Structures are given as structure tokens and as C-alpha cells.
């Protein structure tokens, strides 16, 4: 499938997270431990919010992340308080820039690991559910982007958890109408520049792996000699497909069929249930 990370907190040079940890996302692009595939080399993308801009910047390429000099150059010079990064293993759609995550629409960023089972059978019916005013903004051919535009259609601007729940409910209903069982397998991150929402869900069975970092003050107590922890605020958080290192006690698994919110002043984990739109 794919591997991804979402960072929120003290503005940070991207390479601190993308390259420097022992099991960084760049390492995971070649040596994933918890994914369906070990190698995630079918393109990559990063997206970040600059302090002066309302909408995020994105950079995509179709080659593997581990050998991309432009990615390393950008990561060494861009500092941001909220950023996404994603390395892709295609589930059947083309390897092209428009299929690379994160996807962007206005102030929103979206990335996904997983798949809609039988997407080639469901694609037309799913895309007919997208608001006609949004349809022309779809650039690629992935199930992930279709999910994003369905969530936008079902109210992402006003109610992100509800919009994602309605998106999943719609996908499951369409799949049932086409005789496709247990269609949804997903971990999702979506952000508006101030907050990040994450979701871990499967229609059946165990969802793909997802972890969040512990509170920084707890980590400082556990690992007082770790330099990185001295320079970030207590509200700094990472959500990742798999842990970036082996610091004991640093990572908590996001429970199955759960969503979370990371925002200044509070974090939240709650049950995720699909809804019919």
C-alpha cells in the first residue's frame, strides 16, 4: 500500500523528520516493516503550510523518494509547523504525478493508505456522487482522490469527522449495490492548516497500521538526553503509518475504527462509525 506521516507543532525543517530518524519515512520507502509491500517506490509527495499562505504547497514526483535529490534539497530548506509526507505503492492505478499524495483542494490536504476493494467496478458510481462544482478539480485516477472529493462533497469544510463518515458510508452502500463485500481499508490524514484529523478504519478485519507520538513532556521524562525533544513544544505531534524509531514508550497505536484530532490546546480520540449521507 503506502506509508505516510503528518507533523504538527513547532515549525521544523522537514528533513528532521523525513530523513534523520533511524526508520525515517525515506527509509520506509525502501524498507517498510508493517506495510503490505516492503518497497514504496511508485512516487511520493510532500505538502506543507507556510506561515504567510492560506493554502498548502505541494511537491510530487513519480520516482522513488529514496533517490530524489530535489526532495532532499527542499526538505533541507523548508520549515513548517504542519506538513504531510507520503510514499506510494500503487494498488493498480497509474504511476503519475496526479496520482501522488497528498492531494490538495483550497486550504485542505488529504492523504490515504489502503484501498477501496473493487474500485475499478465502483469508480463510475462513486464519482457520480461528487458535487458537480468540484468534479472538474479531480486530476488523477485513484480511489484516494475520489474519497477526498466525496468527503468535500459531504461537508468537509463544516464537519470533517462527519464528512469522512458519510464518505465511507456512501462507498460501502455503493459497494453493496455492486456485490463488493468489505470495500474500505483506510488510514487517512486531512488538514486545514490549523488542525489535523486522522482516521483508521476497515469495513472488515484489521485496518492498516497507524501510530501517534506521545506527549512531548512525557517523552522528555523518558528520554532526557534526546536533543530533538529539547527544541519542540509540548503540543508537537506526529502521526505515522509506522514508528520512525525505536525510542521505548514513544509511540501509541491508534485503535481500530477510531478518528483523532490534533489541534492547539487539545487532542482527541473518538470512535469512528460510517454514516449514510
From TrEMBL:
Pfam families according to UniProt:
GATase_4
- By its UniProt entry, which PROSITE patterns does this protein fall under? GATASE_TYPE_2 (PS51278)
Gene3D superfamilies the UniProt entry points to: Glutamine Phosphoribosylpyrophosphate, subunit 1, domain 1
Q: Which UniProt keywords apply?
A: Glutamine amidotransferase
**So which domain of life are we looking at?**
Bacteria
Question: Glutamine amidotransferase type-2 domain spans which residues?
Answer: 2-277
Q: Which PANTHER family match?
A: GLUTAMINE AMIDOTRANSFERASE DUG3-RELATED
Q: What is this protein called?
A: Glutamine amidotransferase type-2 domain-containing protein
Q: Which organism is it from?
A: Streptomyces collinus (strain DSM 40733 / Tue 365)
